[in-house]
Amino acid sequence: MGIMCKLRGHKPDRGGARHDGEDYWTICKRCGTPLIRAIDGWREPSVDEKRAHARQAEARGKGDAAA
Ligand SMILES: [Zn+2]
């Protein structure tokens, strides 16, 4: 995490946000940390959320390949 992110929090790339079927995801513009949309803003995902997101991406990839 960069020093600016430590001081001010991450800077989500809202324009690049994508819905994975469960939540909106994006990355921090400064440091590239994955971020998940919460009710009151963006936060870093938990390990479980990262795992679920990876599964969603994998499922989507297979769907695209089959289509
Ligand atoms: Zn950051």
UniProtKB/TrEMBL annotation:
Region (Disordered): 46-67
Pfam families in the cross-refs: DUF1660
InterPro entries linked to this entry: DUF1660
Annotated protein name in UniProt: Uncharacterized protein
Protein species of origin: Sphingomonas sanxanigenens DSM 19645 = NX02
